[in-house]
Amino acid sequence: MESRFSRESRCYKTSRVFPPDVNNHHTLFGGKLMAYIDDIASIAATKHCRRSVVTASTDSVDFLLPIRPTDSVCLESFVTWTGNSSMEVFVKVIKEDLLSGTRAIAATSFLTFVALDDNKRPVAVPNVLPETEEEKKLHETAPHRAEMRRLRRTESKKFAGFLTVQHPWD
């Protein structure tokens, strides 16, 4: 299977923060940002493998700084690492105060996507080739994150076995 550079999956999304997008603290709703993150990550994953993809997990979303209505929010996303049919996608969220031009990392996120064939079955994906220092660091630290995902998934499956599916009113 061929390999692809991280830059080939890189994509960006910039949005303004409007009053309906904020919570009672007058900062961007976390759920709204999470929707932006899943959207841009799915585009990066699809660009990498040129297949339909599904979100296998949102591995982490770290909210680092609040995003306010005076800010724009720019998301940058690219594939950092691949397994057989899975892809780790990194999303960097940069807020920019539109009046001062000051920029800062507001959030980071890692997601895992699985590529699907025409029968909705997992299919092999190209390896990823990092080039920049940022891409190389994310690529070299990815196996540790993959192991953590594997362990968390195993624990989640065990835990799900203890949960009830009964409604409280049944």
TrEMBL record:
<dbReference type="GO" id="GO:0009062">
    <property type="term" value="P:fatty acid catabolic process"/>
</dbReference>
<dbReference type="Pfam" id="PF03061">
    <property type="entry name" value="4HBT"/>
</dbReference>
<comment type="similarity">
    <text>Belongs to the acyl coenzyme A hydrolase family.</text>
</comment>
<dbReference type="InterPro" id="IPR033120">
    <property type="entry name" value="HOTDOG_ACOT"/>
</dbReference>
<feature type="domain" description="HotDog ACOT-type">
    <location>
        <begin position="7"/>
        <end position="119"/>
    </location>
</feature>
<dbReference type="GO" id="GO:0005829">
    <property type="term" value="C:cytosol"/>
</dbReference>
<protein>
    <submittedName>
        <fullName>Acyl-CoA thioesterase</fullName>
    </submittedName>
</protein>
<dbReference type="GO" id="GO:0006637">
    <property type="term" value="P:acyl-CoA metabolic process"/>
</dbReference>
<dbReference type="GO" id="GO:0052816">
    <property type="term" value="F:long-chain fatty acyl-CoA hydrolase activity"/>
</dbReference>
<dbReference type="InterPro" id="IPR029069">
    <property type="entry name" value="HotDog_dom_sf"/>
</dbReference>
<dbReference type="InterPro" id="IPR006683">
    <property type="entry name" value="Thioestr_dom"/>
</dbReference>
<dbReference type="InterPro" id="IPR040170">
    <property type="entry name" value="Cytosol_ACT"/>
</dbReference>
<keyword id="KW-0378">Hydrolase</keyword>
